[in-house]
Write a structure and sequence with these properties.
Elements lengths: L6 H23 L7 E6 L9 H6 L3 E6 L3 E6 L3 E7 L4 E7 L3 E6 L4 E8 L7 E5 L25
Antiparallel strand pairs: 1-2, 1-6, 3-4, 4-5, 6-7, 7-8
Length: 154
């Protein structure tokens, strides 16, 4: 049996850790400066908890914005919880990190995209790719950090 180092899985977990650390800082100190986040997650993923009406409206994926109004951001080892306002209706969301597909901070042109790839042996291997359609900030804030990660394969 040949063993290989799972670099793709390791990178995936490291990037989830980066998101967790950023959100922990925001939970403790609030959003600094012009920072704000667009987070897209798979609503079908195990552990995602959203209101039924939101699940009906977003049956496969949902993008949330953490910027002006959010409440009770709690970051745990496997995900985060947050209350957001949807048309004057506050809703509690529970989002496991495994469900996150994109994380973007357009204020500094930073973005990550998490993908899964189906293999012949039906094993999903996480992979990371460059985020191609990062929303442009309203006013550029200088040079941004570009994160480009090659797709990892066995």
């Amino acid at each position: 049996m040949t063993r290989a180092i799972d670099y793709g899985g390791m990178m995936h977990r490291a990037m989830q850790g980066l998101i967790a650390e950023v959100l922990q800082n925001v939970a403790a100190d609030g959003l600094p400066g012009e920072h704000h986040f667009f987070i897209t997650f798979d609503t079908r993923e195990e552990g995602v908890e959203i209101a039924d009406w939101l699940r009906e409206r977003y049956p496969s994926d949902m993008t949330i914005v953490i910027q002006h109004w959010y409440d009770d951001l709690v970051v745990k080892q496997d995900g985060f919880e947050i209350t957001l306002n949807f048309g004057n209706s506050p809703e509690r969301l529970i989002v496991p990190f495994d469900s996150v597909r994109t994380f973007v901070d357009p204020s500094v042109e930073f973005g990550l995209r998490f993908e899964t790839q189906d293999h012949d042996d039906d094993e999903d291997e996480p992979e990371l790719a460059e985020l191609a359609d990062t929303p442009e900030p309203e006013e550029p804030k200088g040079s941004g950090e570009v994160v480009s990660l090659d797709k990892w394969r066995k």
